[in-house]
Amino acid sequence: QVQLVESGGGYVQPGGSLRLSCVPSGSIFSFTSMGWYRQAPGKQRELVAAKGRYGSPKYADSVKGRFTIIRDNAENTVYLQMNSLQPDDTAVYYCNAKVPLGTSDEYDAWGQGTQVTVSS
Prior knowledge:
Elements: E1 4-7, E2 10-12, E3 18-24, E4 33-39, E5 46-52, E6 58-59, E7 67-72, E8 77-82, E9 91-101, E10 105-110, E11 114-118
């Protein structure tokens, strides 16, 4: 079973920055994709950013230009650099890995979540 350990959440004022980290129990090369999702109170979990083994990352429209996902192969870590944070970014952030099963299937592995609160 894949384990994902997140860190880096916290409290920040509007306009501030935070960097989230996610370290998987296996090599990040083994995952089809890794990304970050978030869930605010009363809302559904939504994709924030994701990056596959190859190609360009994808971002939610609401975070484009402010957030950057970094897949660091050397450190076996996935980061989410969050700049210009706004109160609407307040949520629990979850690391996600898409774990391949055989040649044509995969399942989602999730971290335990880390709280990000943006408030003045």
